[in-house]
Design goal:
Largest sheet of chain B: 5 strands, mixed
Strand content of chain B: 5-15%
Helix content of chain A: 40-55%
Number of strands of chain A: 4
CATH class of the largest domain in chain B: Alpha Beta
Structural class of chain B: alpha/beta
Oligomer: heterodimer
Shape of chain B: globular
Number of domains of chain A: 2
Distance between the termini of chain A: 29 Å
Helix content of chain B: 25-40%
Strand content of chain A: 5-15%
CATH topology of the largest domain in chain A: Glutaredoxin
CATH superfamily of the largest domain in chain A: Glutaredoxin
Chain lengths: 151, 617
C-alpha cells in the first residue's frame, strides 16, 4: 500500500464516520477501484466497521472492488435512449469489446457499463467514453468511436 | 470580486458593473447545455475564439459559453447579441462565415436559421420560433444569456438582490409567509407545498437545522435540474441562502449525482465565488447571519432521490429509505430538522421574493402555481427544455411547442414522471398539466420528464423497461417492493417472450395493489404506475402479446422474425460483420440468409443495413 497516496486523500477530511462516502469516492476516482488494504486503513481511520464499508461499496454503483479498465465506456439506458436503440448499442459494444456489461476487457483497456440516464436525452442514444459524450450513436458509428481509444 | 460588507457596497458595485457594460457590444453565446455539449459546443466555442483572434476582434466581441438555450434538437445553438439572432446546428466549419457575415458584415447566415418543419418559414430571432413563443421562462430566463462561471453576469442581471431584500426588508416569518402565499409546490415530484414545509421546520424551534438541495436527478428522461445547476448555479445557491435564513439553518448541502460532473464543477465554483463575495460564510453582508453550503456527491443509486435515502447517504450510509413520519422537516439530517427541496424549487425562490408572491400566484392553475420545466424528448420534432405555466395542455406542449411527431407517424402516448409515472394516451391530450390532473389520469408530475411516444413504441416494452429499471434500483429493504418488482419483472419477461397467459394480467394488478399500499417509500409505492397505466389504456397491446404472440409495434425481440430480402440484398456483408452470433451467411456480392436457429433477434443487422434489405416482422 502506498501510504502517502492514501494520506493525501484522508488528510482533507475530519476523520468522522460521515466522511466515508466522499473518501471512498476519492479512492475510487484516484485508484480506479477500492483496493483491499486501503479500505482496511479507511475503516481504522474513520472508525467505521469494515462490514459497513463493504455494504456501502456494494450498494452504490460507482464503487468497484476490482480494478476497472483504462477507458470507461458508459451507455445510457434512460427512457429515450431505450426507445431509440440504446440496448442494441450495448449489444454491439459488448460483442466488439468481447466483454459483458459490468466487466473489463481482458487487455484491461475497456470497462463496459450501462447508466440510468446521462441527461442528454435530446441526443439519444448517448454514450460516454471517459469524460467525452457521443451523441445520436448508431451501431455503425461504434467502431469509429472505439478506434479513438484503441491503442 | 470584492467581499461585500454591506448592501450599499453591493448596490454600488452593481451600479458600476452595469455602467461598465456596453449593451451594444457584440456578444456570442455558444450553448454548452446538456443537449449541445455532446454535439460539440467546446469545439464550436474554440473555433470562435480562434476566428475572432485571427480577425483581431477578440477585444470587441464578448465570447461566452452559456447554459441551455432550450431547443436541444437543433444544437449546437449560438445566440448573437445585441441583434438577438439565433443560429442552430452550428459546427466549427460554420464559424468563419458567422464571423464574416454577421459580426463583421451585419448580415444573416440564412442557412443556419431555424426553419419551421411545416411552413418552411425562417426564424431570425428566438421570439419568432414557435417553440419559444408559448413558453414563459422564470427559472430558465437567464440560462442562454449568462456565463454560468461568472458571478458578475449573475449580479448584472439582478442576482443576489432577493437575498438583500429577504435579509434586510423581511423577517424570517415574512419570507416563509411569502413562499406560502406564492403557492409554490415542490418541483421534485411530490408537489408538497414548499412554504408549509419550511413553516413546520421553523416551528420545531430546534437550534440546529439544515437545508438540502436535492440535485439527484435520477429520473431517466429528465435533465432540467442538470441544466439549471450547470447554467445558473447562483440562483440555486441564492434560493438556499434565503431558505436557510427563513428557517434558521447554518449549514446546507447540495446533493448532486456523480453522473453530472459539470454540475458539480459549476456549483463548486459558484459556492467559492459566493464565499469570496460574502454571500456565504460568517456574518453575511453584516446581517449577523452565518450560513455555508457544501456539496455531497451521489454514488450512483436512483433511490437516493428519495429524501430519507438521500439523508442516509449524506450521513455515510447506504441509501435505504426510512418510514415517514417523522418527516425530515422535523427529524432529518443527523436527526435535526431539515428542509429538502429540489433544484428547480430552490431556483424559483429568488424570483418569488423579488417579484412578490402575488405575481407568482397569478401564474398557473388553482392548485399548482407558477411554471414547470419539462424535458420534452422522444418522438417529437423539437426536443429540448421547455418552461410553461402550470395548466398548459399536453397538446400545446407536444404539438405547438414540440412541433408534433416526425416522420408522419401517429402519436401514441406521453410518459410523465419517470419510472414512478404513467403513460398517458391520446384521449387526454387536452389535459391541462398540473400536479392534480396528472394524478387523476394515473401518472404524476415527477421531476418533469415528458417522453413522447409514437406508434413505433411498444407500451408493454415501455412498462417492462421501467420495471426492469426499478428492480435494479430497489434498495431491497422492504419486501413488497423488492419481491413485487422481481415478480413483475418475471411476468413481463414471460409476456415479451411469448409465454404470457391471460391470468398474468390479474396477477399483475394484485401485485400492484400490495406494492402501492405496503412499500416503505415512494419508489415501491409508485412503481405500479407504469404497469397500471399501460394496463388501463393499452390493454390491447398486452392481449396481442399474450393471445397472438405478436408485438404490434415490432419491438419485443423474441416475438420478431428477421429475414433478408434476396432481391434487395447487395451482399455487402455489413450485416455479416455485425452479427454477434454468426447467423448470417452467403457469398460476397450475393444475397445473404439468416439462420433462424442461430438468430438471437438482436436487430443489429436491421440497423446496419444501408439498403433496407433486412425485414422485420
Amino acid at each position: 500500500m502506498d501510504a502517502a497516496r492514501l494520506e493525501a486523500i484522508l488528510s482533507r477530511y475530519e476523520g468522522e464516520p460521515y466522511d466515508l462516502i466522499p473518501v471512498l469516492q476519492e479512492i475510487q476516482d484516484n485508484y480506479g477501484y477500492l483496493p483491499k488494504d486501503e479500505v482496511k486503513e479507511v475503516a481504522r481511520r474513520l472508525n467505521v466497521p469494515l462490514t459497513q464499508i463493504y455494504s456501502v461499496a456494494t450498494f452504490y454503483k460507482m464503487f468497484s472492488l476490482i480494478p476497472k479498465g483504462r477507458h470507461q465506456v458508459k451507455v445510457c439506458l434512460g427512457t429515450t435512449c431505450h426507445l431509440k436503440g440504446g440496448p442494441r448499442l450495448v449489444d454491439s459494444l459488448s460483442s466488439r469489446l468481447g466483454v459483458e456489461v459490468g466487466y473489463t476487457s481482458k487487455d484491461g483497456q475497456f470497462s463496459l457499463e450501462t447508466v440510468g440516464c446521462l441527461g442528454s436525452c435530446a441526443q439519444a442514444p448517448v454514450m460516454m467514453v471517459d469524460d467525452k459524450y457521443f451523441a445520436r450513436v448508431t451501431v455503425d458509428k461504434v467502431p469509429k468511436i472505439l478506434k479513438l481509444y484503441q491503442s | 470580486m470584492p467581499k461585500f460588507e454591506s448592501i450599499d457596497h453591493l448596490n454600488e458595485y452593481r451600479r458600476q458593473l452595469r455602467a461598465r457594460r456596453d449593451p451594444s457590444q457584440p456578444q456570442v453565446l455558444v450553448c454548452a447545455g446538456p443537449g449541445c455539449l455532446p454535439l460539440g459546443s467546446e469545439e464550436v466555442a474554440q473555433a470562435f475564439r480562434a476566428q475572432l483572434e485571427e480577425k483581431g476582434l477578440s477585444a470587441q466581441v464578448a465570447l461566452k459559453t452559456s447554459g441551455c438555450h432550450g431547443l436541444c434538437a437543433r444544437g449546437v445553438r449560438v445566440l448573437l447579441r445585441p441583434q438577438e439572432i439565433t443560429y442552430q446546428k452550428v459546427t466549427p466549419a460554420d464559424v468563419p462565415e458567422i464571423v464574416e457575415t454577421t459580426l463583421v458584415g451585419g448580415g444573416v447566415v440564412e442557412r443556419l436559421l431555424h426553419e419551421e418543419p411545416e411552413t418552411h418559414a425562417l426564424c431570425r430571432h428566438k421570439g419568432d420560433i414557435p417553440f419559444y413563443r408559448s413558453q414563459q421562462a422564470i427559472v430558465l430566463r437567464k440560462l442562454d444569456v449568462i456565463d454560468p462561471e461568472s458571478l458578475d453576469d449573475y449580479l448584472a442581471l439582478g442576482g443576489y438582490r432577493s437575498l438583500r431584500k429577504a435579509f434586510f426588508e423581511m423577517t424570517p416569518d415574512e419570507v416563509i409567509e411569502a413562499v406560502e402565499r406564492s403557492g409554490l409546490r415542490g418541483r421534485g415530484g411530490g408537489g408538497f407545498p414548499t412554504g408549509r414545509k419550511w413553516r413546520i421546520c421553523r416551528d420545531t424551534g430546534e437550534p440546529i437545522k439544515f437545508v438540502i438541495c436535492n440535485g439527484d436527478e435520477g429520473d431517466p428522461g429528465a435533465f432540467m435540474d442538470r441544466a439549471v445547476m450547470e447554467g445558473d448555479p447562483h440562483a440555486v445557491i441564492e434560493g438556499m441562502i434565503i431558505g436557510a435564513y427563513a428557517i434558521g439553518a447554518r449549514r446546507g448541502y447540495i446533493y448532486v449525482r456523480h453522473e453530472y460532473p459539470l454540475a458539480v464543477k459549476r456549483l463548486q465554483l459558484a459556492i467559492q465565488q459566493a464565499r469570496e463575495a460574502g454571500f456565504l460564510g460568517k456574518n453575511i453582508l453584516r446581517s449577523g447571519f452565518d450560513f455555508d453550503i457544501q456539496i455531497s456527491q451521489g454514488s450512483g443509486a436512483f433511490v437516493c432521490g428519495e429524501e430519507t435515502a438521500l439523508i442516509a447517504s449524506i450521513e455515510g450510509h447506504i441509501g435505504e429509505p426510512m418510514p415517514r413520519p417523522p418527516y425530515p422537516a422535523v427529524s432529518g439530517l443527523f436527526g435535526q430538522p431539515t428542509i429538502i427541496n429540489n433544484v428547480e424549487t430552490w431556483a424559483n425562490v429568488p424570483e418569488i421574493i423579488n417579484m412578490g408572491p402575488e405575481w407568482f400566484a397569478a401564474i398557473g392553475t388553482e392548485g399548482s402555481k407558477g411554471t414547470k420545466i419539462f424535458s420534452l424528448v422522444g418522438a417529437v420534432h423539437h426536443s429540448g427544455l421547455v418552461e410553461v405555466p402550470m395548466g398548459t395542455t399536453l397538446r400545446q406542449i407536444v404539438f405547438d411547442i414540440g412541433g408534433g411527431i416526425p416522420g408522419g407517424r401517429a402519436f401514441k402516448a406521453v410518459q410523465t414522471g419517470g419510472p414512478s409515472g404513467g403513460c398517458i394516451p391520446a384521449e387526454f391530450l387536452d389535459l391541462p398539466v398540473d400536479y392534480d390532473s396528472l394524478q387523476q389520469v394515473g401518472s404524476i408530475m415527477g421531476s418533469g420528464g415528458l417522453i413522447v411516444m409514437d406508434e413505433t413504441s411498444c407500451m408493454v416494452d415501455v412498462a417492462r423497461y421501467f420495471i426492469g429499471f426499478l428492480y435494479e434500483e430497489s434498495c431491497g429493504k422492504c419486501t413488497p417492493c423488492r419481491e413485487g418488482l422481481k415478480q413483475l419483472k418475471k411476468i413481463y419477461e414471460d409476456i415479451t417472450y411469448g409465454r404470457g397467459e391471460e391470468k398474468h394480467l390479474t396477477l399483475m394488478e394484485d401485485l400492484c395493489a400490495v406494492m402501492a399500499s405496503a412499500s416503505i417509500c415512494g419508489l415501491g409505492q409508485s412503481a405500479v404506475n407504469p404497469v397500471l397505466s399501460t394496463l388501463k389504456y393499452f390493454r390491447h397491446e398486452y392481449e396481442a402479446h399474450i393471445r397472438d404472440k405478436k408485438c404490434p409495434a415490432l419491438v419485443c425481440r423474441p416475438l420478431l422474425k428477421y429475414t433478408i430480402d434476396p432481391e434487395t440484398c447487395t451482399g455487402c456483408l455489413a450485416c455479416v460483420r455485425e452479427c454477434p452470433v454468426g447467423a448470417i451467411s452467403g457469398l460476397k456480392k450475393e444475397a445473404q440468409e439468416i439462420d433462424q436457429e442461430l438468430c438471437i433477434k438482436c436487430g443489429l443487422c436491421y440497423e446496419v443495413c444501408q439498403f433496407d434489405a433486412v425485414r422485420r416482422e
